Predict the 3D structure of the following.
Amino acid sequence: MNDETKYFLTRLGIYTFLFTFVLWVIVPIIISTLYAFSTRLDYYNMNKVIPTHFTTEWVKTILFTLGGWQGIKNSIVVALMTIGISFSLGIPAGYAIAKFIFPGKDSIKLSIIALRMFPIPVMAIPLVILYIHLHLIDTLFGVALAHTAMALPFVVLITSSIFAGVSKDFEEAALVFGLNRFQSFLKITLPLALPGLAAAAMFTFVMSWNEVFVASILTLKNRTLPAQILSIMAGSSGGAAPPYYKFAAAFIMTFPALIFVFFARKYLVTMWGITLK
Amino acid sequence: MVEVRLEKVTKKFKELVAVNGLTLTVKDGEFLVLLGPSGCGKTTTLRMISGLETPTSGRIFFGDSDVTYLPPKDRNISMVFQSYAVWPHMTVYENIAFPLKVKKYPKNEIEQRVKWAAELLQISELLKRYPSQLSGGQRQRVAVARAIVVEPDVLLMDEPLSNLDAKLRVMMRAELKKLQTKLKVTTIYVTHDQVEAMTMGDRIVVMNQGKLLQVGPPTNVYLKPNSLFVATFIGSPEMNIIDASITERKDGLYIEGSGFVLRLTDDFRDLLRDYIGKDIYLGIRPEHMTVRGVSTLEHVNKSAEIEGLVDFVEALGTDTIIHTKVGDNIIKIKIPGHVPLPIGENIKIEVDLDNVHIFDRKTEKAII
């Protein structure tokens, strides 16, 4: 086998892999989108794989009759609150871990990760009881707090690696040229860390958007989208929902997240013509 | 513009003593170079003057005011960093204007000063660009412009040229020196490059292992090093250091080493009285020797002669370095011009006795 064939085969291998991977991700999204808008007849037609008649009935029903729209709004509020709380707590922690040496630093880092090993279902009942006592049960703020607890370890670790990537010379230059430590953080380090922080925010958003267990046990009326959809699909309204409803629900879950990622994507890669890790 | 005074400044990082009891005065408007190998404490010294580090003990004064514990922003200093530290999220203009904005200069004055600094460093065309669109040399200029735009009391430079390529470095060396002469700002410049130190400094401070070894004008430090370390650190090719001993014979004092005997003139007797019969290090710079019959030393009062064997010849174009075997020693001789000596040839080496250095074996301090 000569070098040219080898090169060609390697390329072929890489592209086959990439192609398969993309299919693996995109096919379920396409199929659930198609079935979400399929008419009942087309869906149950054994001779049709791809439906040809479409309706928006299922999506509309979930959104406007079964509380999906309210769920989306709740989810966005919870996700934004989660980002807000976990960032205001996580950024200082991440900065401290990145820039300072202090006693117990390594064990703190380890315990932050270890926190994630704790299975949440074990905590379910104590958590609900605690929330009832604190009057946080069935509130969006309560869900956001729980999501913060889940997202915070990652926010701390991600932001610390982002801050570690911003050279300390930039900050020291700011100190020399007239700023105090806090100002130099705000004016120099934070803007330079922004692309990374945007990525961390996206991560937090997606985590909160997807989270269903905690949201389900902590809320009854004020449900986030996944919790609301779970209760619809599991048949709290009497009997399990037909499959095209499930596809419609999947579509409703995926679509806003896709749009969000699509717009946030460019902030991940470049800013001011430079790529920051 | 101000005088900077360090009094017994010590900095420890846990057990490590980075700077050890440094006392030093930088005169108003002077260009002072801190020179030493990496890890000698020169950068730590600079950072303490800037306020980015606080001394473990000792005091730092700017003029009459004690700034030891003052944060950097209140010292009216500027600094050029080794990595330039030009902020990537600001344009060149914004970078240069930043110190002025922080100090709340009026808007039109900011504009004037940025223009002035940019013209001085020939970067007027680059003001709208981002640092990522600039070359290393241009970024360097932006860093310098940002440092001088506020007219600081003290300008600190931490190996500012070490990231530039050789050609650019030589050019910037001259430009920085000219700029400093024009602005007359008290400047403290850290480098490990002895050529930079020699060419730029009004005075050089040689440091090693946290201690100040010698302070003085470049030529003084070069011609009269006070220790073995200073003698070998400055100069290229470095000073020949030869194991030898002082002996007394009927007709006077001699320096004896492997393969040579140097007769010293009588005026050395007083200086070397305590070392008669003892081992010393003999130091001779390569340019303070010549090969008889090839060239002659200029302005020499007293000289002595030793014999050697040509071992290797380095032709550098402007100079020739002749590695000569004298006994067990290899002695380098630098002669101007091109000198084609055949390897293995016996030569007579003339040594300029006015520029001979003798160091104590134990303390490594200079005796002469």
About this structure: The first helix of chain B runs from residue 42 to 50.
